[in-house]
Amino acid sequence: MEFKGAMGGIYRITEWITRFAYSNILWMLCSSPFFFFLVTKMLVTGANESLQMNWAMGIVAPFTLFPATAALFAVVRKWVMGDTDVKIFSMFFRSYKENYKQSMIGGVFYVLLLVIMLVDYTVYMTQFSNLQIIGIVMLILLIVLFVSLFNFFSMIVHYHMGILQILKNAVLITIIRPLRVITTVLGSAVVLFVGSKYPALIFFFGGSLIAFWTFFNFYATFTKMQEQAERIKQKELEEQEAAALEGDSQDEPDDDSWNKEAVKKD
């Protein structure tokens, strides 16, 4: 039964609220070990206990938070691409299984590198006053690496690529398309800020809203890049045809760019 007018609008809004809440709850349940240690860290007062919770979160994140986040991105990817009637439960856990290995390996990489950079930054800024410039460089690299996580999850669910290629391209697109990434970060910050005022919103909508906004920006970026690549390819073909008509021999250009190697997922 299809509603029209005001009732139709209310029905569609209710549908979207349900989608976001349902997918977010699945994400939090599958990431529950990480969030358990996070909540515990927020409740403890001792520095030693807080440090222990940091280590615990770092250990469990690659095996729980990263695969669950990849599964959440797989769901919102369908929504952004127009398939709003996808079965959330089956899509979530199918993607969780399919992307578990890559997301786990990527999680180990990110956690280790983030910890190393954070320790280096702290050491250079607090113990080597004459080498603080190195600490500033480490901070910049730390921010770039952290922000590249947005692209990492988008790429892992959108393309059939090796994990090393995904990691490299996630960082690369963060550097070459900074404005779109900044927009993603600002939108996510707004969600987190509102969630800090109303914690229930984080529980029901925080992760799914951020994932949706992130993949929306990612998809817009890569659609534009693919259009540019097609125009370049078309121009190259036209130049080759013109050269052939003139009797010139020209080798076909070797195109090994990552966006042409990647095979988009279904």
Q: What general form does the structure show?
A: globular
| Strand content bin | under 5%
Number-wise, the strands total 2
Helix content: over 70%
Helix count, per DSSP?
Answer: 11
Sheet with most strands: strand arrangement:
1-2
Poorly predicted residue ranges: none
| Helix/strand structural class | mainly alpha
Order of helices and strands: HHHHHHHEHHHHE
End-to-end span in angstroms?
A: 29 Å
For the largest beta-sheet, the strand count, sense and barrel status come to: 2 strands, antiparallel
Summarize model confidence as the mean pLDDT.
85
Rg is: 22 Å
Q: Would you give an account of this structure?
A:
The model has no long low-confidence stretch (mean pLDDT 85). Helix content is 82%, strand content 2%. The two termini are 29 Å apart. Strands 1-2 form a two-stranded antiparallel ribbon. By secondary structure, it is an all-alpha fold. 28% of the residues are buried.
